[in-house]
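Why DUF7224 domain-containing protein? Reviewers of the renewal asked for a concrete example.
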Amino acid sequence: MPWSTVLRVSIAPRIGLLLIIWLLAYRDSVTELVTPGYWDSVAGQSSSLLVWTAPAVAACGAWEGMRVRQARTLQGAPARTFTGVSLAVLSPTLVLGVLAVTLSLGMLLPQAAGSPNGTTVAILALELLVVAVHIAVGYVLGLTLPRLLAVPVALVGSFVWMAYPAAMNVFWVRQLNGTNLAECCQLDQVAAPRSIVAPAVASIGLLAAAWLVTVRGRRLRPLAPVVLTVAVAISAWIAHPLGYSAAESRSTASRTCSTTHPQVCLWPEQRDSTQDITTWATDAHRRLTAAGVTTTAQLAPRSTTPTSDEVRALLALSALPKDIPACAQTGEWPGSQAYGPLSVWLTTTAGADPRTVASRYAPPEVDVAQRVLEQTPHDQRVWFQQNVETLTRCDKQPVLDAGRL
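Here is what the prediction returned.
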């Protein structure tokens, strides 16, 4: 059949126009979740748009299957094989799926830097596999279900499978449809291989089950649910250790660290800002040391292009305990009242813009810290040392008014 005829009778070009408009409308909501400059994050976030792409192509596949059944193309002794006929009628839908995946990634490309790696290629391959499976399942539904049910069932079923697992507390289920990669990645993370392999196995199992349903003769059809069940079980076993996350820790071998105090360690995506980050961290360290504050010996910003205030705040807050005391889990913890004022005082002392700091904390906490900053350096040091101690115990009240020390 000529391509012009295939395109004319296919529903894919019509649905494709709506799908592209829909994907473009979601661009901003996805873009803001990307870690700028990091390919793993760009590719991972593009997978979130499968929630819309998969149902659209599944509905197209169901329509084409229904049209083939009505035309009785596969009955009798056709000159072409089932696969040949199916690929011919599904080709526009397959092209639509590839274009949608390409567009999903292309919208986020301005936030990527450098060259894509093997993980990016694997994520894109998974997205294409998921799209192909939804087309195939939709096509089989079109061949088997009544004409009034095929398209609605394919559309709604595909959407439920792609969207609903994200709301489930059974974490491994979230990993099976290919969209949970949107939970990846911060700069210190990479996509876990399990988060790619698990949905790939589930997709292959679903594809195999769909194929068994279409096999002529009834001997192999009962194997379809068996194959699907085995594939899902294997996928669940692969995904279970991941829990909610699709990421794992990134190897620190790719980081470079300075010889300054504190030592500043940066990922390749941050290296264009090395000089600024090091200068800000060194100055903040000098200010805090002069105030009698001990900070972390190694600083590793998580933003691709951190600002001066972010770097100074990160170093300053490293002086506070990371965990609440055990006693706070069973009783009162008076020291919790000191956390805000201490944070404001530390970040301001480190050289952060006071207006930026004030916008991030409650006004009463800012007022307490501002009154302390008006005291002598000695009194400020005493105030900090006495109040920071209350963050690690429950039997001591903070003294937030510097005049009462």
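The chain has a mean pLDDT of 88. This is the kind of structural detail the renewal will allow us to pursue systematically.
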